[in-house]
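[STRUCTURE TOKENS]
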Amino acid sequence: MKHIRNFCIIAHIDHGKSTLADRLLEYTETISKREAQAQLLDNMDLERERGITIKSHAIQMNYKVGDIEYNFNLIDTPGHVDFSYEVSRSIAACEGALLIVDASQGIQAQTISNLYLALEHDLEIIPILNKMDLPGAMPEEVKDQIIDLIGCKREDIIPASGKTGMGIPDIIQAIVDRVPAPVGDPEAPLQALIFDSVFNSFRGIIAYYKVVNGEIKKGDKVKFINTGKEYLADEVGILKLDMSPRSVVKTGDVGYIISGIKEAREVKVGDTITTVARPSLDAIQGFEEVKPMVFAGIYPVDTDEFEELREAMHKLQLNDASIVFEPESSAALGFGFRCGFLGMLHMEIIQERLEREFDMTVITTVPNVSYIAHTTKGDEFIVNNPSDLPDPSKLDSVEEPYIKANIITKADFVGPIMSLCIQKRGAIINQSYLTSDRVELVFEMPMAEIVFDFYDRLKTLSKGYASFDYHQIGYRKSDLVRLDLLLNDEPVDALSSLIHRSNAYDFGKKICEKLRELIPRQQFEIKIQASIGAKVIARETLSALRKDVTAKCYGGDISRKRKLLEKQKKGKKRMRQVGNVEIPQSAFMAVLKLD
């Protein structure tokens, strides 16, 4: 046990975590030259295309330092704020963390929030200055920032480069010297913490765990404490580049178990595995429950595929524990699910994965956050979907979630960023200079305002330099109204949204104009209206496609033409009463990108 080191790599987006992990794998000869490729641990097509890490990846490396062979269990984590739950789970399975800071960009918001996650779990932090080979590197300034942040000694910071491989031996040495070995009792009953799981269509569900106490052998009868279900451990082993079977996985190790579980609902991340023969009575305190920030409806395009979508969602939840969903139905879209995501990027990735991995084409409704509604009778309830909001006559007040946002940016961009936040109903709480040209701004603002396009606009205004991180601080009263969209007087519930009264008119006008461009013209006139309650605040009209019915009359009396036109007019009127309007998926998505 004293030769095991469990550690993860944490950093802001694009500071070179995956590249550094590649160098570590090459240096310890865990992978051969033939297997080597850039971002080796990012094994999803989506991750490679976008160049981001979406899933944490665990891998074991064996390396001799002196005469002693060490087992290094490395977990490479995502950097994006939407995947912070992945990071928190990885941290729970480790004793140390490599904190990577880009030498050319310095400390950014996500660096700080991931660092706090690691400090809450009492991890040993090893600061690493990455990208030292870049011409724009500022090692001395960034070292000062790191010392201010974590209060370490200057010589503790390891200069490195994921590209050239500089500093890798020092990092390995630091992991051996500074990261504590896992603490656990090999003689105690088995306790293993599940931190991830994947679905394999041949072998069922594979759970990844860290053994905290005891050991798990092939052929043991095991029990999952939370669900109370019992299984036979068909195969146990450790995670190399592929899974490598072992007869026993001992205390402190990170491994996998295949036990022929078919039902996705039976494996929960954060559950504890124990043996039936010598059960442990108490579960390990795993992770806090995930709190979704953004809610949207996901519906199958073809209503018959509802059950297949349910299966796909369960399988996806295995691999991404931060998604929550429950069934709901909509008048416009049929049966589907109300899903909670950690942010807009998370929502986009889930939609992509459903299409790629499960061949499901889905429609996503306008995302929103959850509100608390108070009725005049004194009841209060949570509103996840704008159509659940009670009638205005019965509504006393609505509370919306607020967040505290930390934005770190260069001093040149403070003005535009402040005006963006104030435009989004934010209030500035604090402004402090970290160095002469780096400013940290702290705002309190409504969660709903950052759901749509806040992050994109922040990046645009700051030329990509600003970094952003947030956490919830509770609910506050707001003057919110429900904006409904009507097509030919029929409300489209999938497009309704809760919005602040001051923004309602502009938003309604923009949505109507946008829909007028996107909805295909029909044989009849379509009126598009935005309304608050019974009051219409914006309207656009999509004119009808007209067939030239008088083409066959050349010459002749005007009354013949009039007769044909009157007949057409009647037909149009009847059509408008029975015709229904199909809304294309692009219209649902375009509403999100109104600016």
Summary: The mean pLDDT is 81.
